[in-house]
Fold these 2 entries.
Entry 1:
Amino acid sequence: MSADRFWRHATLWPAILLFVALTILPLANLFALSFNDVEWVNRTPVWNWVGASNYQKLPDDNLLRAGLLNTVIFAVAAVAIQMLIGFVLALLTTQITRGRGFYRTIFILPILVPGIIIGAIWKLMYSYDFGVLNQVLHVFGLSALDWLGSPNLALLSVIIVDVWHWTPFCFLLLLAGLESLPDDIFEADRIDGATGWQILRDITLPLMMPAIIVTFVFRMILAFKVFDEIYLLTGGGPGTATEVISFTIYRRFFTEDQSGYGAAMSIAVIAIIAAMIIVATRATAGRGSKV
Amino acid sequence: MLFRNNFARRALQSTVALAALTGSAFVPAAAADQEPITIVINQSPWFAGFQAVVEKYEEETGNTVELDVNPFAGSLEKQRTAVRSDESPFDLVIMNAGFFTEFYTGGFLDPLNAIDPEFKLSDDIYTFDDSVCWDAKAARITCETGELMSVPVNPNILILHYRSDLYQEHNLSVPETWDELLENAKVLKSQNMYGISQRGQRGAFDVTYDVFPYLWAYGGGIIDQQEDGSYRISMNSPETLAGMEMYLKLAEEVGHPSTAGQTQTNVIQNMATGRAAHIGSVLAPGLFDNPDKSAVVGKVDYAPPPGTAEHGSATPLGHWLAGVPKNIPDANKKAALAFLTWFQTDEAQRAYAEAGSAPVSRAVLTSEMADTQEFRWMKALADALPNARLTFTIPEASQVLAVTELRFNQAIGEEMPLNEALNTAATEIAKVLEDAGYKYQKLEDLN
């Protein structure tokens, strides 16, 4: 091995060691924990080997089942709406010649607000007795809605908050994608007499596909991990109407102090998210090569 | 030249003198004789009173106390992490009645007499079903054979809050049974007023805590006979069903349209804004008589929760206990004990009440203070406390609560029929007990 090649490898080692220490070891510890139950005796943790029984219990866990279903509904619905609104806003912003910076700043404001404040703002707005939304309904002679307390409305209410919060993320990434597209193709199309709709369908969308897929994957991964909005707005209720997987893990792991079972649940969810990333990455690579 | 004129010099001299005077005003009356301590505590309606008492302690003794304030569930997790670490950052943990057993069974706390053999619980302080003592050998709560492990800091129990002005206006009597409460609530219910506002949302120990007075009033419960180790699951007994039917009847006929979504904060807000004629809540009397926070100043009165002619009235103990972690330095243990010694004094307990929170001293609750309008809640509290009961005495309480919080909430929100919710919960509780190695009795399913 030449000295140059040796040094190239040697300089990588600190990063590899850090990666192992900060990512692989905690994951390995979590994996080991998932085959045990932890009991505290005289201030000492005692790990009792239980084999795969923590994993075997997972399919029977009603909270986990509800959490998985709600998380999928939440992620698909919220991200689809965010992508649509974000893309439309990004398209409109690229058409603006004066004051584009101003609009860009306005559109990204919600993403700058801390989650705890978003929770407080929306909880007040959704309040059955004092919330502004029900007061508006009252003005129009309509009955008050139980935004967070009704099993039929609660998940939709949380999705609305998530759309408000995260649409700017999609807007920013898609705007960056739109601004990086080459102008000459659009100019040539306009000279050829293409309509706005034709340009959007045949030029903009295909060229934007890699950016759209990357944004979609990023948002799906983040949406799958939603926690703060649920914790602050509904606590997973009413019943299991807004139970999501992160909240179920938090509840089992920390509130109920079932660390072994919580670890098994965490490993299962990591596996699901990893599978999602692999599928999405392959889809992105495929689409990217076609464009 | 530093000063251009006499005015500037005089101004500076005055400022220095004023600063010296002001500074001296902030020097504590006494010099500190204990290590500074940190207390981990939850943000509750009674927290303001505790904070005021801590400030008084600091002022009188010169000792320093830092408060680490958290939401209910967050506080429990912080306490667990602290007592399980090499050295706890907290010198006193304020544990809730629902969860304190796990701190005793895990061996995380020092018996108070191991820190100071002379330390004792004042005779005036309630022991709340002996929950302050733990017999490690027998693994049970008892002051007969157990050691003193904690000192109560707040006597949280559910108390009926009602609009005394409306009771007077409509010539109503304070209800002693749930049926009487229902009748009164029907009279007071209007377009702008709920007959009653009940907490129904699921949380760490929320809806379960609030339904206990209904269950016990009809002879029901969740797990009975925990003290003698029989563990009879009464969650799906006909008596529990009757109690829950009364809860739901109140919710449907005179209650809030969104009972399943109501938190403790919502319930208290409904009373404070004049939207509810009755609530069942832990005491926060300072709030309702504070004109900055309440639209019903002087219009709320208090009574023990209603019951039934057959079983009387009972209310769940949701009290808070202060314990000293094993994993802190000896000097901090002594400092924590010094605070607890001072906290039990008549002076501290009166100050606690004056700051708007309920004291744990029988002497103060039955003192002349109780006869005044400001402290009218004391009589209700003193009357209800003899019938207050512990809810769970097993360290797996948090797992049982996860079951009951969900199933009660589903029944209240009509996501699941009541019978099915109770049967399902009973099966799930049996699983928790079985996995933990308890012998238990389970009833036949309700039809």
Note: Residues 3-49 of chain A form one domain.
Entry 2:
Amino acid sequence: MPILTIDNQQIEVLKGTNVLEAAKGLGIVIPHFCYHEALGAVGACRLCAMNFVEGPVKGIQMACMIEAKDEMVITTTDQASQEMRARVIEWLMMYHPHDCPVCDEGGECQLQDMTIAGGHDIRRYGGKKRTYSNQDLGPFICHEMNRCIQCYRCVRTYQDYCGGTDFGVLGTNQRVYFGRFRDGRLESPFSGNIVDACPTGVFTDRTFRYRTRYWDIEEAPSVCPHCSLGCAVIPGGRFRELQRVRGGVNKQTNGFFICDRARFGGGYGNHPERPRVPRVDGAQTTWPEALRALRKRITDLVARHGPGAVAFLGSPRASLEANYLLDSWAASLGSRRIAFDSHWQHDRSARVAAGKLGPRAASLEDIRCSDFILMIGVDPLNEAPMLALAVRQAVRRGVRLAVIDPRPVTLPCAAAHLPLAPEALPDVLEALAGGDIRRLGRREAVLLEGILEQLRAAERPVLIGGPDLLGAAGIERLLDTARLLASEHRPCKVMTVLAGPNSFGCGVLARQGPDFEAILNGMLAGEIKALVCLESDPMTGSSDPARTGMALGKLELLAALDYLPTAAAHHAHLFLPTTAVPESAGVYVNNEGRMLLFSSAMDPGTPISVSGGGDHPPRTFLPATPGSEPRPAWATLGHLQGRRLSLRDIRQAIEMEHPNFAGLSSLTTGGEGKRIADISPPPETAPEIPFPHSEGEGTLRLYAMEDFAGSGELAGYASALAPLRPTPFVMLGALDAKQRSLSDGQQVRLRSELGGVGVALRVVPDLPAGIALVPRLRGTALESYVPGRGHYDCQILSEDEEKT
Amino acid sequence: MTDLLPQNIHDALAAKAIEHLHPREMIIEVLRAIQDHRGWVPDEGVELAGQILGLTPLQIEEIATFYDKIYRQPVGKRVIHVCDSIACWSRGAENLYLYLQETLGISPGETTQDGTFTLLPTCCLGLCGEAPAMMIGLKAYGRLTRERIDEILATERAEAGA
Amino acid sequence: MKQHEQVLFKNRSPGETAFLETYRKSGGYQGLEKALTKMSPEQVREEVKKSGLRGRGGAGFATGMKWSFFPADKPGEKYLVCNGDEMEPGTYKDREILMADPHQLVEGMIISAYALQIPVGVIFIRYAYEQCSRNLERAIAEAMEAGLLGKNILKSDFSFELHLHRSAGRYICGEETALLNSLEGVRANPRSKPPFPAQKGIFGKPTNVNNVETFANVQHIIAHGSAWFKNLAFTESGSGTKLYCLSGHLERPECFELPIGISLGAVIEEYGGGVWRGRRFKAALPGGASTPYLTAEHLGVGLDFDPIEKAGSRLGTGAVTVFDETTCMVAATLNLNRFFARESCGWCTPCRDGLPFINWLLEKIENGQGEMGDIDMLREQIRNINGRTFCALAMGAMGPMQSLVDLFEEEIIDHIKKRCCPLKT
């Protein structure tokens, strides 16, 4: 490891570290624009000049472009390097408008900071200023090219890192322009990252425009709740509403970037119909009254029917602390009837992952650094978007990526795609684990042989799977396969995408407990009289919404704690409002078992934009903030058990009871989190879990799939994501479409056990025969098609056929 | 499409692109083919090049706007490129450039009202031995004087069928 | 005007282009035959190395040395690229070669490809050289037809395919790594070095790039030997002839093939016909727009790489642009700087924005609005651009700029004091 001297201080750095980073290690922060840890050094801005006095290179050099070497002696404070930096800033500022007072970036502008730090003050350039026209880049991002300093960060983020192809650099010399071919929404699902990447106000968050100055926004490091990856985000609130989300840094998970669902999908907590007041039997009431009523009703039910009459449903989107307290409440009442995910396969998959993933768990960083990737039954862009980006980083380094999935798995990188029907996936898993490869077709067998060969040859292979098509049984086989492929010298890691931000944590808590299927049966049989739902909505969350609705109708008591206006919250006899994620602190355990702390960025309250209806809110004077009733679920659950607990108390209790959460209470916000210890014994008697599909009949087998912005529960309540939701469509293979004389784009009728619905047809050339796909789209007729349930028998008819 | 690229050339380029390991390499070739036919490259030309090469219009545009000899705005039937580099400058190119502007009644970057000539500056044409020089279309003209410019313009105008 | 041995220009005749028949009559393709039948690739490389040939594209790097870095013996995809993006103001030697005798380039490339064991070559030709492209197309077709190019050249084991790429403008494409990007169809920004093209060139494969004139010399070296080639030079240290492109205020601004190392004064007086209109010599760019000015005191300097460097300038492309006594050096340098500013690819700040900054400064001075502080500001700009940019383009711009403030400071002061250009009539 080289040792070098910068400004008379010595530092030892890892081989390959550049001098700019080395200086940063000493606390010497030299202004720079084009260098970015995730994007690398390209030497474009020429700002990070340092004077190399001794060593292999001499003179003024760009520190980001020079690898730290032994014997280097460098100064950053000498006249020559300071002058260089001041001149570069002066050049960059030649045309920059002095519009900071009206610029959204003002106050959090790197250019402002670097201009001061670089030592440029008064503009000497008196020539004509270069100006540009702006483009309409859609509902999420504003374009103000006159502010551009040509650092190329946006395009390196958008094209190189994120794989976007509709935004780039145009023109040459001092007229280079960063934009699109034409006006229009940026197509990449990671487009918002250019807002974070831009050092000044060229690209700003349109949904946040003109709303808050940086110094007025309340921010805190948090974790994105939209999927199971646990990306670091920084939500920001003001005027009692979540106003924006920007990317946080966690090098083990998301790195530096986030997806647009995370960034623009934070508005679920601002929903105008969000229930904010406790309610008993449909009437709003006070907290003490509601708590008393809930306790009393449950005590009565237990007294009358025994503890088994009360069931509990935790949630993968509730914090570990809240889920734990729900569990301990159930235990204190003597009820064993608690499940943590109403979706049966998701629940079982999480338990398998929690029980068996162990040290084989791959982080997103592991994937970025891997050297061969096999994805099976996983659709990253729709299920866990940042996974797609992690995979891209590996592929950019020349890593091969194989995808086995019936869905048209769209990725921001090249992949070898083997489209196999869901029913064939168990055979594939079998074959990968050393089973009979001949059960597959000949072509498939050849391709699989090739994949296996590469898998065996790789040094850091990663297998990735998801629960919707593999189910718990498939996830388990995937883990077995990894175990078989791994040796002492060569790990074979696995990433299992799970349903929610805390699915893994729920999987640990659930252990041998019942699943929601058992609870459903209990409700339908009349054994269960009460159900307490913690931030969960079985009406839309379970794989069988109709049956769930029927079961819930039989209950004497449905209690819900939530911050979303869900069906369960609406129908609950007893409702207790909870705080949304940006208003809460807690821990999520992401899909690799990483405990991640999130803090509260803001207090709950009815957004002024809601109470004022877009205008100034009414001038009424109240002792409390309007709409500030929601309380953290963990606090309410503690209260219901008559315990006054702090988060610290709860975490210590969790550590005591579940030793694999060791270190939970010493987690800090904004860090990389900590992987849970792998000491939980795997479920002894794993129930025989069928795959989420069965051999089909003569009709088409329809599978529901996740959609980037249309399927998620939280995303469904985030109005800003509306432009990203597709209109309902069904996908069909070319041959099946031809047989039915249907063509791409045509309006068709989709008929299944769930009824008939008109949708547009998308013909996907290589979709396996006999398979149809629909995205689950909340708020549309496709809402009740639940991914991960297995197939629906369906028919697809042209509208004319339907009429006859 | 035929007003962007004759069918036979389109087909030849498309066939070549399919065979090509890196169709990107052909961007300038395709753009120049469109420009040869159409005189300039309209937005639809960028889109067509994208279709032929399997790239997005933006990916084409990034290249198209890099080069000064790909015209992304309408030009006249003849584009006059007047060299303004040092060798021509030293021999009076500036005055001839002004003379051209006067004669044609246009400023640099503009096209004559009859649509015949567009006037653009260019860097050194490699005609330094014949400075001052200019290029009309792909044809080089050196040893320019006012009189010679008048003659050249007359010939080119006649050839352009104006 | 003394006649010197014509090598590259031996078939040059006004208004005519020599094609295969003429070329062969004058000994064309004998070098190739010799190389393929009598020499190993290594011997060819050795001969070129011994010849002392230095790159004619501007940087003057020893060709043999450059080739020695190339993994010639490693099998696989490799490329040979000819840089025919001649766009350095004042330079038109490659054009002269391609207009007069294009087979020289084709043969030179085939021999070079043999020496470096490269199967595919590309000639990159600038937009303005359409006639050169057509000449090359014909030459390539003729060579193919004659079995001199393509599969099993001259019935040997060696095969080489040669492509022509017509560009669409932009000086930066002449920078070899930018040229590779241009060929790949990505934006022609220069690449960071290392890795050098010899290691990672087109699509990451080993690539050797040479200039038209450099390649054209190769077949003569092989045909006649390195000793002969070295002897062609005027000076002891030099090698070969050089195509000097004369331009500017001369009676006869033409391109001459002369022994390398002939003095600046001799070139101007004997070949260029002297400064035009009977005026006196003021300054010259000895090697293109990116070389520092030489003045009257340098007229005795030999036009070869080393002597010119000693005089504070560079041989560059060997394009001599002469300025007479009436020339305003501020205006001349402004013209040069405007060229570089316009041709900047826009990648790095000092070039993209620093050159326009200098444009503004020089315009101010030339228009009589300069202040005394502007000279310091100009020096400070030069100091912080020179050697600080991503590639050599802006460094080229700083060549004449530095010599402007060093050699003609009085003239700048005159502009500022008189509040106008003292030389404008």
Note: The two ends of chain A are 78 Å apart (CA to CA).
